[in-house]
Amino acid sequence: MKLPILTIQDIKKHNPRCFIIYSDNILESTNILDLLSVDNKFLNIVGVSYEPIDQPIYLFKDKDSDLFFCIKVAGKYENWNLPENVDSIIHFIDKPDFVIIDALDSEGVFVGETTGTANVGNSQWQREGRKISAAENKIPMIYQTYYSGTDRSMFEQKEIDSGSAQGQIREPTSLQAINHFIYSIRYKTPSLVVYYPNYEYDEAIGFKRDDQGRNLLKHYISVCLLYRADSKHKVQKKEIEYEIYKRMLEFITEGVNNRKSKIQRIDKDFPIEPARTILKNKGKDFIRFIVNYINNDVPFIEKFNITKWDYSTFVPWQHRYNKTRFLSLLQKAKIPSLSYLKGATKAGFVLNTSKLIGFLDSIYPGDHGKFSNKLNPKIPTLIIPTLMFQKKDNKYIYKVDPGTGEIVAFAELLARDIKNAKSMNTIIYIHVDGPDEFTTTTKLFRAIKRYADCLIINERIYEI
């Protein structure tokens, strides 16, 4: 797009409030600022300075006042001695696409994660660590994805590259939006997901989608910047938050085909109480509460505690790990384990942790007695099996995806209550053999360190 060219002196004469955007690369930043520059109901673009060329500065003006502000494109994270809070975000578990900070005090203003594909198949939890990085640092965040896409995770890379792998049309799970609701309440910070249409695929599965997601992303970033400069914009900020949460709610409660009938999406993806009843029957009141709660306008209201799980609504855990030693023996021992859906799911839990500890002592005699030190017998225990290595040509390759996001997603969903207190122990089970020595600096291991009470690698406890 073509914007008026300014000099640094042109910008300085407006005495603007200044912000800085850091990102994976310059293009991530300029794409966002170009988005803010077109059809923005809150801001007018004044122009852009290319002094220097690799650090453009965009100048905007509030449409309702004489406030000017500029955003400097710093570009790639690695090129800078980052402010402490930005460094904390990108090294927490995984780095987001971009972070906007206030140049006055380096405080975070907005975190964004954008993607050109739907998060389906192996990619559905890939960005979860980035969301928690923002939430933990109390910075508003939007994850932009698509209503639908194709799952090609069953194909080899050469088939994908050649274009012969068409894949199956899939939609994001309701759990994505539900986790965002949970993060928002737990960390008392806006954690939002915005969906873009993928018209060809959407229509093929019977949906007509609008393109309001782009406007919501554009306008929410704008009001976050304005709110940072002047708290009078709080009302506008809350209005857009409500609209985004409302659309998230509409997505998870809309009708979808299920065999020969039509049911609400949440009933297909996560039919667990009390989340199911609250979101289906009290949804508008629930999102109104979230908006007011994250903006410090109301206290926590217990009737909206969607993570006070009714364990009777879970079902026996079925999984794809029957050939792994731990989980095959667990099944033979007839120790009940539960999960949220019939059919194979990636994580499950055992209610009777005392019995589980005795079982673990029996199958891992070399670690006998250690499990009782790691697991609280009074609460359930979540089990998350994952890859960490893959052997190829007698060499081990580190596998960080999709395991990193799955650990974050399921530990946050099930192992912590709405106030962020531990409600389940977490065992992370690396279900493939690996080398005796390996790096512990990957994003996967950062997630493990955050969530695991007990880590099993190579069929023995690994001390974190």
* Structural domain count: 2
Extract low-pLDDT stretches.
none
Write out the strand line-up for the largest beta sheet, numbering strands in chain order: 1-3-4-5-2-6-7-8-11
Nearest-integer average pLDDT: 94
Major β-sheet, in short? Answer: 9 strands, mixed
Shape: globular
Total helical elements? 17
Helical residues, percent: 25-40%
Terminus-to-terminus distance: 50 Å
**Number of separate strands:** 22
What percentage of the residues does DSSP assign to strands (E)? Answer: 15-25%
Q: Say what oligomer this is.
A: single chain
Give the structural class: alpha/beta
Rg estimate, integer Å: 23 Å
How would you characterize the overall build of this protein?
Helix content is 35%, strand content 22%. The mean pLDDT is 94. The strands form 6 sheets. It has a 9-stranded mixed β-sheet with strand order 1-3-4-5-2-6-7-8-11, sandwiched between helices. The protein has 2 domains: 82-304, no CATH class; 311-462, no CATH class. It has 464 residues and is of the alpha/beta class. The relative contact order is 0.09. It starts with a strand and ends with a strand.
